[in-house]
């Protein structure tokens, strides 16, 4: 959207999408606190706390950390496999691909 994420207000459409979700993934650390109101009763993944082990006062801009997406992919394998065990291998392969792409990105831009 064309709005600062700190100022974002969910639309009715967003509320419908969240209500249909099996898992709600959100940044955490107050960056997107609106999601907690919409996701009552849903399995929620707070990327800051659950995945990156961040604490209050840490930088909430997790998506700028090159390690976030790979760690989230690995975390999602476990969560999706709980909901859909027969496709666990598929989820693992996708996470491995994400992690390989992350390593290539880091090598290209940070080494």
Q: What is the multimeric organization of the chains shown?
A: single chain
Q: How would you write the strand order of the largest sheet?
A: 1-2
Structural class based on helices, strands and sheet pairing: mainly alpha
Q: SSE order, as H and E? A: HEHEHHH
Q: Report the major sheet.
A: 2 strands, parallel
Counted beta strands: 2
Straight-line N-to-C gap: 33 Å
Concise structural overview:
This protein has helices at 12-19, 34-38, 47-51, 68-83, 88-110; strands at residues 23-26, 43-46. The protein is mainly α and 111 residues long.
Compile the SSE list and pairings.
Blueprint: H1 12-19, E1 23-26, H2 34-38, E2 43-46, H3 47-51, H4 68-83, H5 88-110
Parallel strand pairs: 1-2
Helix pairs in contact: 4-5
What does this 3D model show about the protein?
This protein has 111 residues and is mainly α. Helices cover 51% and strands 7% of the residues. The protein contains five helices and two strands. The protein has helices spanning 12-19, 34-38, 47-51, 68-83, 88-110; strands spanning 23-26, 43-46. The protein has a two-stranded parallel sheet. The termini are far apart.
Key words describing this protein structure:
111 residues, mainly alpha, two-stranded parallel ribbon, 2 strands
